[in-house]
Amino acid sequence: MQEPGVEDSTTDRNQYCQNWLVDFFFKNDCIKCKILVVSFWALWFNRNRVYHEGLTPKEQEVISFIKAYMVENELLEGSLVPKTVTKSVKWEPPDGDMAKIYFDASFQQDLNTSKAGIIARNKDGLIMVACIYPSTNISTPEMAEAWAWLHVVTFGEELGFREICVEGDTLMVDKGVTTTGEDRSCISNVIKAVKSKYAKMAIEGFEGDEQRLVLFSFRVSA
């Protein structure tokens, strides 16, 4: 029997974990705490998959799941760019082996900062990579969207995608990068940088209006 006042090893471990969690949440910022919570949730979810379905996920799959969830959560919580959604948009897979990249931008006016959230999926809808690009000295929502576009094309180029489909809700920037005339807007310099990337890509298709997400397809030029 256990002696009075003496805790067994299980109780000691539980108490240590509780103290560690309290200390972690007390000392770290909201982002780190959120990542920890999401990580616990992802691990528990996949533990249940192992138990109930006999599926053992790969380490990279769990990491990608956590990153993608954080990206989507960041955009939902931090976006100050007004959006008007008049119809539901269903994700459609890209053609063939093309990668599909979805992106969005958030703008924080009081700090003059923005973040571009980017998620790349393959034809099966599986997340290949997800990331967030922060930008500083951003004065308008349009500039935040323009920088998001630049991050997307740079992102695709650096990862070596030969064929990508890009989807986002940035109508003003989309029109700017597809027009051939001189751009005199406040985002002209960023648009020029985006167009310089297009020199290495061929635009295969464009469609969109004010009520729809715009869709671009690119193929790296030979």
From TrEMBL:
Domain RNase H type-1: 103-195
Organism placement in taxonomy: Eukaryota, Viridiplantae, Streptophyta, Embryophyta, Tracheophyta
InterPro entries: RNase_H-like_EbsB-rel, RNaseH-like_sf, RNaseH_domain, RNaseH_sf
UniProt-recorded Gene Ontology molecular function terms: nucleic acid binding; RNA-DNA hybrid ribonuclease activity
Pfam hit, one: RVT_3
Name this polypeptide is given: RNase H type-1 domain-containing protein
